[in-house]
TrEMBL record:
One of its GO terms (biological process) is amino acid catabolic process. Belongs to the mandelate racemase/muconate lactonizing enzyme family. SUPFAM superfamilies: Enolase C-terminal domain-like (SSF51604), Enolase N-terminal domain-like (SSF54826). It comes from Actinomadura litoris. Gene3D superfamilies: Enolase-like C-terminal domain (3.20.20.120), Enolase-like, N-terminal domain (3.30.390.10). This is Mandelate racemase/muconate lactonizing enzyme C-terminal domain-containing protein. One of its GO terms (molecular function) is metal ion binding. Keywords: Isomerase, Metal-binding. InterPro entries: Enolase-like_C_sf (IPR036849), Enolase-like_N (IPR029017), Enolase_C-like (IPR029065), Mandel_Rmase/mucon_lact_enz_CS (IPR018110), Mandelate_racemase_C (IPR013342), Mandelate_racemase_N_dom (IPR013341). Residues 136-223 form the Mandelate racemase/muconate lactonizing enzyme C-terminal domain. Pfam families: MR_MLE_C, MR_MLE_N.
Amino acid sequence: MDLSLSVHRVSLRLTETVRSSRGEIDSVDTCVVALTHGGVVAYGEGTPVEYDGVTAEDVARAIESGGPDLLGHDLGDPRAALDRVERWDAPAGARMALDGALHDWIGKAARRPTWNVLGTPREIGPTVYTIGIASPGEAARAVRDAPPVGAFKVKVGGSDDIEVLAAVRRATPLPIRIDANEAWDLDLARALTPRLRALGIQLIEQPFPRAAIDDYHRYREVPGRLPVVLDEGCTDVASVHAAGRHSDGVVVKLCKAGGVRGARRVMEAARRAGLTVLLSCMCESELAISQAALLAPLADHIDLDGHLYLREPPFRGLGLEDGRIVLGKAPGLGVTPRAAFPPDPDRRRP
């Protein structure tokens, strides 16, 4: 039962331009792996972290060059293969893709949903819907037009953050979290905190640059401060230990941690350290969201909304009911491709 592996670069187009303090995006590039073994075709998605300088080309090149030998010819022991992927010295997105394909294969080989094999609930959440940097009127319209989620995340870092957040609060009674993507400084955070508290803001992600550790320590002394969770400032278990000294929690993404296995270790380390755990994503397809959803029981907050912004989703199978993500019932990760990802003879094991 020989194993074949192919890599497909996919451009995910968004329904509208999303703005953050980092800039604007209307599409993102990702990689989908198709793994074929024992008559089973399994898929995994690997997302490059472009703000760290990693591209979809980097992810694809790593999988093409190292993936076949890493997986070998036989998945008789898929958990050993997962161990090898976790230890692989490759971009996190490459590990995420192979890890996801293996989790899909495990469920499909058992003819059961992977969430059922692992004992994960089928319904997870409530999840958020993210509002990019916008005018107050645009932000309020985005809330009113949003799918039926359980909370909102608002990107901040503009000149009228408070006015935007006030408009969002008038438009919804649901919890609101904010994400500055490193755009604030200590003086701004200190000045805005009382007004943010008055609006009932739940927490803030990465308010200051990663290197501004002193600002994080000093913000902890601000009366009535918001809880702070680190995204860009936390990628692995080692950074969790550092995060505990100047934050209240961490944002965990498969694309940073290298897949389900790596993200699980980060989440478990954070919980042992008494930190809040927020399970999040990039703009990704339902395939990647289904991979991340396997870790939902370890999270305090679920921010898995990346698939809700896609114009032409390449996978389908997830539901959304009463603010909660409903995982698919199909074997494996529970999602199916809308179009075939055929093996590429130039990118498969001979």
